Amino acid sequence: MNHVFLIDPPESLHTEKDTSFALMLEAQRQGHGVHVMLRGGISRKPSGLVFKTRKAVVHDRAERPFKLSEWQESAASDFDVVWIRTDPPFDVHYLTDTWLLSEAGKRPLVLNAPQGLRTINEKIWAAQFTEITPPTLITANAADFHEFLRDHGAVVVKPTDGFGGSSVFIVRSGDKNAAVVFETLVRLSGYVIVQKYLPAATEGDKRILVLQGEILGAVLRLHGENDHRNNFAAGGSANAASITAEDENIVAMLRPHLTNLGIFFAGIDVIGGKLIEVNVTSPTCLREMQKFTGENLAKKIIDAAARAASGA
Ligand SMILES: Nc1ncnc2c1ncn2[C@@H]1O[C@H](COP(=O)(O)OP(=O)(O)O)[C@@H](O)[C@H]1O
Ligand SMILES: [Mg+2]
């Protein structure tokens, strides 16, 4: 089987903790072809969809992890699986990749499904599941924000398209910076997500990876000394995590929706038993999770992708 990974430039990847790289290693181990494609590598020609790719040989080592062949152009249908694994933000370029990849039809299999990627904003989409999420306001209106802040006493304010913990503020009622934080975030992302502050965040943010609607594993991210944010990108550490009945319930509620939208692989964030976001663009944390579970989770993902691509 041949897998194409649409990724950011290979030299920008921190391969030792990169989920896409873990998938490439496993695909290669199973004897599949691994190919790399960058932004702009998709063309829709009158003859059909074509990809500009480089065949990759990958090594799990810090020095020269990628050995890449010359660029070559091939029909998209020469490949079995396309992994959309470019980092957020979800911008017009990302959106255009999904539009073009929608033309692939059934071959190659595109993961996650372009239609699902277009439908799910990781934080806004999650907010509809009010039974399992903290009270959440999405607004550009300052009066709405102040009312919500009065009602809840402490809130988290974040952009609609953020990732890695960027621009996530805690604001408490009476804070003289409250209005400034809100205005700044409106300027940043148009709309702002205002969410009840969950004190349980001090105990960590659980990342649950979900493969075809089933829980694959979990890891607990815990903030560093000088930051409230639990993201690895903000200095959070990786810790072992167990799956609770609340986690099972969250995944059970999301399962039919994720399946309908063709979300093959998702990363769900849970704080204090509440759903915070559903990551679908390029879910991460696989390598950290493998360390704690001691399981080859990448194998389960590649096996499932191979089964899905062969129509099994
Ligand atoms: N409702 C909340 N209550 C407490 N802390 C939160 C809340 N929402 C987010 N956080 C903190 O901010 C971090 C990043 O939030 P998240 O919504 O997952 O955005 P990102 O996409 O940037 O990861 C979380 O790991 C957590 O530490
Ligand atoms: Mg998060």
What's this, in brief?
With 312 residues, the protein is α+β, with helices and mostly antiparallel strands. Helices cover 28% and strands 30% of the residues.
Could you characterize what this model shows?
- Keywords: ATP-binding, Glutathione biosynthesis, Ligase, Magnesium, Manganese, Metal-binding, Nucleotide-binding.
- Its cofactor is Mn(2+); Mg(2+).
- The chain folds into three domains: 2-111, 3-Layer(aba) Sandwich (Rossmann fold), CATH 3.40.50; 135-197, 2-Layer Sandwich (Dna Ligase, domain 1), CATH 3.30.1490; 200-303, D-amino Acid Aminotransferase, Chain A, domain 1, CATH 3.30.470.20.
- By secondary structure, it is α+β, with helices and mostly antiparallel strands.
- The strands form three sheets. Strands 1, 2, 3, 4, 5, 6 and 7 form a seven-stranded mixed sheet that branches. A five-stranded antiparallel sheet has the order 14-13-12-15-16.
- The two termini are 14 Å apart.
- It contains eight helices and 16 strands.
- Magnesium ion (MG) binds next to loops.
- Adenosine-5'-diphosphate binds next to strand 9, strand 11, strand 15 and strand 16.
